[in-house]
Amino acid sequence: MDRKRxxxxxxxxxxxxxxxxxxxxxxxxxxxxQLKEEVSPVYHGVPSGSFAILDINAPSIFWSDFQETxxxxxxxxxxxxxxxxxxxxxxxxxxxxxxALGACFSGNKMLLSLHYRGGGxxxxxxxxxxxxxxxxxxxxxxxEKHAQxxxxxxxxxxxxKATLDDTIMVYFSxxxxxFVASFDRALLEKSLSALDNDRHILSREDFSSVYRSGEEDxxxxxxFNHTGFHRFLAAFATENMPDxxxxxxxxxxxxxxxxxxxxxxxxxSGSAMMDEKKDNYLHVFSGQAPEKMDLxxxxxxxxxxxxxxxxxxxxxxxxxxLQKTGGYDRYKSYVQSFTEKYNINPNDYMLAWxxxxxxxxxxxxxxxxxxxxxxxxxxxxxxxxxxxxxMGNAIDKKEGRPSDTVVFRGVDxxxxxxxxxxxxxxxxxxxxxxxxxxxxxxxxxxxCSSLEGIEYVINDxxxxxxxxxxxxxxxxxxxxxxxxxxxxxxxxxxxxxYILPLLDDKVRKTVLEHIDHLINxxxxxxxxxxxxxxxxxxFYIKADTGITPDASLGWQLALEEPPAAEPxxxxxxxxGQKNIVVFDRNNQMYLVDLKGTIQWxxxxxxxxxxxxxxxxxxxxGRNQCLFATRSYIYCIDLNGxxxxxxxxxxxxxxxxxxxxxxxxxxxxxxFIFAGEDNVIRNINKDGNKVRGWYEPExxxxxxGKMQRVVLQGKDxxxxxxxxxxxxxxxxxxxxxxxxxxxxxxxxxxxxxxAVRNGQEYIMTTDQGGRIIFIDKEGVVEKxxxxxxxxxxxFLYDDFxxxxxxxxxxxxxxxxxxxxxxxxxxxxxxxxxxxxPEIILGNPKGISPVLVLRSKNDNRVHIIRxxxxxxxxxxxxxxxxxxxxxxNQVSKELYMILFNGKRIESILLYPGA
Length: 912
Fold this sequence. Notes:
Blueprint: H1 2-38, E1 50-56, H2 59-68, H3 70-75, H4 79-96, H5 99-105, E2 110-118, E3 121-129, H6 136-146, E4 148-153, E5 159-164, E6 168-173, E7 178-182, H7 185-197, H8 205-208, E8 220-225, H9 226-234, H10 242-249, E9 254-260, E10 265-272, E11 303-310, H11 314-324, H12 328-342, H13 346-351, E12 354-364, E13 370-378, H14 381-399, E14 405-408, E15 411-415, H15 421-426, E16 437-441, E17 444-448, H16 451-463, H17 471-476, E18 486-491, H18 492-499, H19 505-513, H20 515-518, E19 523-531, E20 534-542, E21 555-558, E22 568-571, E23 578-583, E24 588-592, E25 598-603, E26 613-615, E27 624-628, E28 632-637, E29 648-649, E30 659-661, E31 670-674, E32 680-684, E33 707-711, E34 714-720, E35 726-729, E36 735-737, E37 752-756, E38 759-765, E39 771-774, E40 780-783, E41 793-797, E42 806-811, E43 814-818, E44 824-829, E45 836-841, E46 849-854, E47 859-864, E48 876-877, E49 883-887, E50 892-899, E51 902-909
Antiparallel strand pairs: 1-2, 1-8, 2-3, 3-7, 4-5, 5-6, 6-7, 8-9, 9-10, 10-20, 11-12, 11-18, 12-13, 13-17, 14-15, 15-16, 16-17, 18-19, 19-20, 21-51, 22-23, 23-24, 24-25, 26-27, 27-28, 28-29, 30-31, 31-32, 33-34, 34-35, 35-36, 37-38, 38-39, 39-40, 41-42, 42-43, 43-44, 45-46, 46-47, 47-48, ...
């Protein structure tokens, strides 16, 4: 019996133990499952009013990569963006600064949500998904170690305020396994309310339709609501801008895009949702296959902002576009009145030829001025030109005025003289295109209200200085899709001054304070491609702190033909500035200012024999250009007008440039030149032979310009033949001296006046590189400073800046500079095996710049006084010796090069 009781007791205990263990196990499982169920998805903490969400899969990795990108480096220096980054940094610090917390948080999802708070202000909300609900105590303890923490409330969840550095306050909570933080207490409360009552972002049908819960292999995703973005832009804009930004609210609805972080930029690609009920703007492209974008080939490289559209059927697109932008009724009314007034239908002449692409771009001209252009692709460029000319002629005939046609660089520019054509035919977007000039370039017709603007477009097109050829655009464009229905491109290097006036005063002030950082993120592109009822979106911004805007390289322009004679500077008595005189192979003479603008051109009969001589023909302080051709001597003023009596025809063909000597500085000029009979002629400014001139004859041809040196009141007129034989005459043409011992002049070295030990000399160099000093009696002293080859180049100029001229040689791969006392003060390696010319840029206050031009291959090399190169290191080319120009205002040093038809100004020294 006892044994039986013992067995029953054992059995009951075993059963009880089993029941207890099962109960405990069941309770444990239930508790575990309950814990897992309590961890809410992080999106449940995002209030439904969010208009942009950054979704990060692995915060620590992403934040590390993000901080290394160049845009982040620049944006973090701007207060608005620094505010957002602080939220990210705060949430990231919770997961990375504590080993215990870091182990729990590693790899968990983090969100940054942006919210409109009214009055043009925005706040950010940071959320971090936790692995379970038991982290609140650890997080609060962590925060208390780093800040002053106080509890703010317990409904519906515990919330806290942390004061950092006695100035920054952040509000946070840890509800249902989510860490939530914001600098805006009200926004935190909205987040907790959304989590409590399920009125969160995922409860919105429009957002849930684009939401992707899977963990794609991307660093982050961005969800973006177009309907709220115009508010974001309006917060930065002037009061009259929000109406113009309304189009953004209807562009599309939510977009979901993957974010990638190449070092130089940020790239987002994904899709945008078009709401059929709301008929978003992108619906105008429904059924319109995107075209490959090619018009970059006609847009200037200095394009600041470009709005581009492509379509398959322009007529149907045009109708939908005007209806969407509210201009359709105005368009129909305009077409009717235009047809009645001019007896032609503008649809037939303005729309019928448009094919697949249209755009409006804003271009920055040299000097900072902006012009707007409209670009339309033509089905047939000849048909387009014929139609536009007929329409323009009909308007001009009705208005009783002649048709406007201008020829620029050999390209015809026409005009449609109707100020309301574009705004009515193409909508408000083109309202600044009024009575436009237009030109046909390849398959495109470019319109611009400004003749200056259309000429600039033509000039850059001829130079191939286009967006397609721009190095910066070429580096930017690989992240763009080849085809897009809508494309917005900007370049802040050109667009900043255009955008600044559109900003709110406070925002403009902030931007100006940080413009150096923002301008380092210059390039941006936004593309939409509509296909099969959905829209592909592609956004890309690119930073480049080393970028140099094309404008800082000066300018470029194209002549009708390459230069035929050496260009030269001439001072403008009206402005005090220098201008460039150039002659091309079509015997066109150009005057070009230092902004790269052609002031005028004049046709002459023959090619000049050398650079111009600047004279004051009337002795009234006004300059003219004097030069000789083979058969004539020309004198042209700075308005491009021929001086009365010119050109003068010579009796024997010239072989040398003309030299003008004004002995008494009274305007009584003597023009001296040599003929092919080797006789040196001397005429007065009226073209008559100077009485008493001996007309000396040389033994060999004279191809160089006559020179005049005055020693102790005596004139020495120097003629050097092509083989280095030099002769010295007085004002009557009689030989004044015969140098002894004899020497052979280095044909590339002119004669100078030099002073040594208080005595005046004529100075030059001989073919062996020795310095030749000739006194007034003809006594020659030869000074050898080095063993130079016959191919050396020589320049007599002040390199050291002490007010005395130095002796500069380039030879055998080196530059040697000897000071006025013949001490070697500079030696630098130069490109070997070149026959150089030397040009010196040495304005006061900057490091001297030597430019060597190789006669072998026209390559231009830059050598600076300092070893450290603070300017262009690359080589350039020039068919003629470069010109050096120092801008006294900007303290910038420029070099002007001549390559074929192109003239370009290159910045060598960026100024103080």
